Amino acid sequence: MEKSFKSARFGEVKLDLGFDFGNDGIGPYEYWGQRCNDRGKPTVEDIHIESIEPDTPKARAEAEGWIQDNWDEVVADALEDRAERKRYGNE
Length: 91
Hints:
2 helices; 33% helix
């Protein structure tokens, strides 16, 4: 997923982010003789930078800080992007 942010040092920093998705469900289980399945909800377990422009160690460090500062927004965008790809059969 492509994201960008403004940096005082580098101007616009462009990122291509990759995600490791997980799930918070426990799957099939039995409760008092009733068979159930907890499908859970998708979660983001990790975010990694696949490419960055400009590609310098300082820009990468600043980008990692930006990701941490904007974690909720980045995760929400990633989950929305994943849901849309699944909806249209691109995953």
